[in-house]
Amino acid sequence: MTIYNLGSINIDMVYRVPHLPAPGETLAAWEYSQGLGGKGANMSVAAARGAAHVRHIGAVGADGRWVVERLMEYGVDTTHITQVSEATGHAIINVDDAAENAIVLWPGANAGIDGNLIGAALSEASPNDVLMIQNETSGQQIAAQMARDLGLSVVYAAAPFDVDAVQSVLPFVDVLFLNEVEAEHLEVALGIGVKDIPVADVVVTLGAKGCRWYQNSARLVTDFDAIPVAAVDTTGAGDTFTGYVVAGLDRGMPMAQAICLATQAAALMVTRLGTADVIPDLKEIQDAKFI
After folding, report:
1. 47-78 confidence digits (pLDDT tens)
2. Whose CA is closest to 223, among 205, 200, 238, 237?
3. Is 281 marked active-site?
4. Domains, the chain, ordered by start
């Protein structure tokens, strides 16, 4: 099967700082790096490194050819990544000594994805393939409805959180990923608890506390512990987790097994500085000494 991922592609500019800047503060960084990022790209790389066949649907500018090449190096099919006149999206990421981060996003080319590109990509899909979406691109509702009509499963990571975006795609979603804060916001917006959201499976990530799987179709809730590690950078950990869960499901794993694998991947990833470029593959997870 194939995972089609309508997702953002960013150039990440990462600054290591002694603490996150306060309002009005000018702060000197002591380390700088640049790499491939964006929630969508991170998820595609994670799923590909989790041994899934991934086709990314996205857009870059003329300055983004190298990030497309990087995606190809990591095993992602880039056939449906188009070049537009707008510059490639980017993220300015501050990471402090406690591994906390503060991120400023500029969408750039990610906002230039239209229905024609999405339709051309999904016209090649087969029933039982998967569409993965998040909120850093345009076209999520079009893609979700099209995927549902074609018989694909729809996986949605509702970040960055926007209540209107969530409500527009929720009727088409089979698996929903939220972090703890996003879950609280959605409960307030909908006026119902997570366990009553009309989605078969909802996974809420809880940071260092692990995650919680709401199997709403069966009215079951299961908690999973995180793996304690000395974190260096938590940027992209949730994306890594999501990509690995979806890859596991695509490979036929039960949800619980896919979550356990994804927990291992995210734990290893946060011990490294960076985003898509440092997402571990299956062999690295198997070789990790903390597992």
Report:
1. 999 999 999 999 999 999 999 999 999 999 99
2. 205
3. no
4. 2-8+39-87+111-287 (3.40.1190.20)
